[in-house]
TrEMBL record:
Compartments where found: Membrane
Highest taxon of the lineage: Eukaryota
Gene designation per UniProt: 6033041
Protein name: Tetraspanin
Organism from which the protein derives: Culex quinquefasciatus
Alphabetical UniProt keywords: Disulfide bond, Membrane, Transmembrane, Transmembrane helix
Amino acid sequence: MALGCTLTTVKFLLLVTNLFTLLCGVSLAIVGTVMHVRYSSINGLYAEQNSLLAYEALLAVTLGMIAFVISFFGFFGAARNSACMISTYAFLLLVLMVIQIGFAAGSFLQYEEARVYFLGRVEANFDRIFRSAGGADLRSNPAIARVQRLFQCCGKHSYKEWGRWLPESCCRGGITAGCKPYETGCVEQLEEYFVRSARTFGWLLICFTVIEFVAALSGCWLANGLRDEEAARKRVRFQRVPAGRVNP
């Protein structure tokens, strides 16, 4: 099916924005996977499965996979010049956009309350581990060691809390001889991680929604153009049929 110059331009715009939609879906799924891995590393200090971070990681992976699947409707519909498939693509994108806007708003609105609760739980669990273990057992505690290595922090608020004998996980590069400890406490590092993750998730959803809006708009434009061209061809065929003959 040959397309006019305007529809060819719209089709090109749809393909470009749809490619970005696919890349957005992949990147969102990757971000969610990374968030889940990092969140899993602090389960020893924050054993909450229903936290904002856990929800955001799961949502990022789920929404990314949905966007990835939807993008194929756009590619196949554009390749076959199928108005029906492109309309379905645009509709699914609009539904996804509404969902993303809702989750982005929820992330920003619940951010402060979730941050305070998160830090309170981290500090309480840090204190619980310090009380339940001591000496060498505490310095080799796997939950604390894992967090200190991953987030490059030492102690709850400072490496000085460990006294003269610093655990290996507090030393830069894991080298205890001539140990150069991480100066930032783990509570401060985890707070920075929480703030960065929550805000990044919210802004990513907003940016991706803008791209998806352009793709959905292009899809609606192309689908309407394809229907108009099909209707025009039918009118031309009908007008060419001689009087007294029925157009098969």
